[in-house]
Amino acid sequence: MGGVFAVQSTIMLLVNLAILAVTIFAFVASLMYSAEAYRAAGKWSKQGWSIVLGLGVVLQFVPLSQLISIAMLIAALVFLADVRPALSSLTRRR
């Protein structure tokens, strides 16, 4: 019986690490663009996204409910799927 719980615990650890990695990546990506790029893309402000995504990173280290982790993951995925492509289409990287 203990083996089942060990497998479940390992899987949950891997899921939480993946969520942490995605939220950290989204947070760092949100800091890489200027506030003007957010305005030009017609998206929420840089400060708003940085606060939400930074809060998502911090809350991953606080043992709260999984619902909060899922909500922060959704915010990070929305940023990565919608906002980041719009910002990168406006700016050129050198």
Describe this structure in words.
With 94 residues, this protein is mainly α. The chain has one domain (2-89). The protein is built from four helices and no strands. It has helices at residues 2-31, 35-41, 46-59, 66-90. Helix 3 runs antiparallel to helix 4. The longest helix is centred in the first third of the chain and has 30 residues, at 2-31.
Short note summarizing the structure:
This protein has 94 residues and is mainly alpha-helical.
Q: Low-confidence segments, ≥5 residues, pLDDT <50?
A: none
Oligomer: single chain
Give the termini separation: 55 Å
Helix fraction, binned, reads over 70%
Q: Average pLDDT, to the nearest integer? A: 90
Principal-axes geometry comes out as: elongated
Question: Which percent band covers the strand fraction?
Answer: under 5%
Number of domains as seen in the coordinates = 1
Q: State the helix count.
A: 4
Radius of gyration, whole Å: 16 Å
Along the chain, the helix and strand elements come as HHHH
Secondary-structure-based class equals mainly alpha
Quick one: how many beta strands?
0
Largest sheet geometry: none
What descriptors fit this protein?
single chain, 94 residues, mainly alpha, 81% helix, 0% strand, elongated
SSE layout and pairing:
Elements: H1 2-31, H2 35-41, H3 46-59, H4 66-90
Helix pairs in contact: 1-3, 1-4, 2-4, 3-4
